[in-house]
Amino acid sequence: MKFDYLIIGAGTAGCVLANRLTKNDQNNVAIFEAGKPSDIWKVNMPLAILYTMHDPKYNYKYYSEPEPYLNNRKLFCPRGKMIGGCSAHNGMVFVRGNPNDYERWASFGLKDWSYEKVLPYFKKIETWSGGENEYRGGKGTLPVNQSKNNNPLFKAFINSAAEAGYKINSDMNGKEQEGFGMYDITIHKGERSSASRHYLNPAKRRKNLKIFSESFVEKIIFDGKKAIGIEVKIKNNVEKIYANKEVILSGGSINSPQLLMVSGVGPAEHLKDNGIEIVHALEGVGKNLQDHLETYIQQECNTPDTLYSYVNKLNMLRIGIQWFLTKSGPCSASFLEAGGFCKSSPEREYPNIQFHFFPAFVIDHGLVEPDRHGYQLHASPNHPKSRGHVTLNSSNPYDYPKIQFNYLENEDDMKQTIECIHVARKILGQNSLKPYAGKEIGPGENIQTNELFEEYIRSKSETAYHPSCTLKMGIDEMAVVDEKLKIHGLQNIRAVDASVMPEIISGNLNAPTLMIAEKASDLILNNT
């Protein structure tokens, strides 16, 4: 089989590429996804996030290596294994990042990725419920809605942020990011708005698009330095499929570098150690791994306004039936819908902390049910200085790679995380939350010194599920792709997913990954 473009991975970026590239009926496109189709209730129901996060049929369920600065804990690293990828199992919070993030990208010799250059693509993505303006799009592919969740804890939290002296911001994706309020969400008419539903599904009927689900790409085929095709297992048969124009890696920040390395592209010594013939030595493949590390500040709640009310099986059944019949009620929300951005201290150049407020306790990624009413603030520094890596366990593409985040390796990351706790306590201690507030459960009211804060953070902090930057864009010796997203030193191959970010952005990754794919589509269509 031959196609013009082979897209490896039908996640957030892959779905965008498949839609945009097949709008030109002269382009013949195939997209390959190792996972299953995702048009199922537990993907579509916003409150059912955990049902796919912990299901190996729909998730890779990776774990990191023991993290040396987190008491050698192995941290959970879920990645979507289905059509739609992580857009089919994320928290549905739509955050573009801070405009200054993209100015920093531009400063790395990537002038085409400045905020001015990426803003049109952010606008192109969305039909925003607030209406089109200078910063927001009104005629895009994806419905992006301002949360209208009326849980009283959200209002109390936002009022408390104002009482603590922080800005209130009705649009954190608009002119400026700083402030607290309700997030934009990718929930529409009570259902998840994934990239598969809004980008891939409308393109399915096009004769120039072929979608292969449950098809595992084992290797990229090279002729010298030119990518010419892939070896892919489809229904237990390994087939060679060729590209007339380009092979496009869209497997995400863990799988894309792994596939490159098993195909012979990566750090020379590491490939030799795994018995892999070197196609092209490229030191930065798998390096520069970044993520947001969250610390939970947890407080008992004196009122029954939390999600603990739905631990009761009868209540759970009632709200489930309500959603199936009407697409309304608690199951139509993610409850990760309030939060904000602020500076942890005055010397910070721009907001360096993100908060998510959640009206329940989260224990072990939701595997353990809470035993009482409570709420928590997820606090994370936006710009960690620590860097990790993705490496191979073996040359076998089916072996999970080694993931080492090195969270908190840099001392400033710990300093900022402690500052996060102080800001969180300041907000949670204001009058608007007093009617709801019981005792602090985590870190606990007796935890007051930096030494005790450090131990709490090392023993309890968790991923925000934002791995990125492992095939970074740039011009330095560790860069993997150029500003056109072409892999340095190779022909006919690009990477298009969160791995190409040179630095992690301030916020959740879904929106910027969509933007990267929209911009990449134009680069490919314009043959640049």
Tell me what the structure shows.
Strands 1, 2, 12, 13, 14, 15 and 27 form a 7-stranded mixed beta sheet that branches. Strands 8, 19, 20, 21, 22, 25 and 26 form a 7-stranded antiparallel beta sheet that branches. Strands 5-9-7-6 form a 4-stranded mixed beta sheet. The model has no long low-confidence stretch (mean pLDDT 97). It starts with a strand and ends with a helix. Helices cover 26% and strands 23% of the residues. The protein is of the alpha+beta class and 528 residues long.
Q: What is the strand tally?
A: 27
Largest β-sheet summary:
7 strands, mixed
Question: Beta-strand percentage?
Answer: 15-25%
Evaluate the radius of gyration.
22 Å
Q: How many helical elements?
A: 13
Secondary-structure-based class equals alpha+beta
> Termini distance?
26 Å
What is the overall pLDDT average? Answer: 97
Helix content: 25-40%
In one word, what is the shape?
Answer: globular
Poorly predicted regions: none
List the helices and strands and how they pair.
Blueprint: E1 2-8, H1 12-21, E2 29-32, H2 41-44, H3 49-53, E3 62-63, E4 76-77, E5 93-94, H4 99-107, H5 115-125, E6 126-128, E7 142-146, H6 152-163, E8 179-182, E9 184-185, E10 187-188, E11 191-192, H7 195-203, E12 209-212, E13 215-223, E14 226-234, E15 237-249, H8 252-262, E16 265-266, H9 268-273, E17 280-281, E18 287-289, E19 293-301, H10 313-326, E20 338-342, E21 353-358, E22 374-381, E23 388-391, E24 402-404, H11 411-428, E25 437-442, H12 450-460, E26 462-463, E27 493-495, H13 510-525
Helix pairs in contact: 1-7, 1-13, 5-13, 11-12
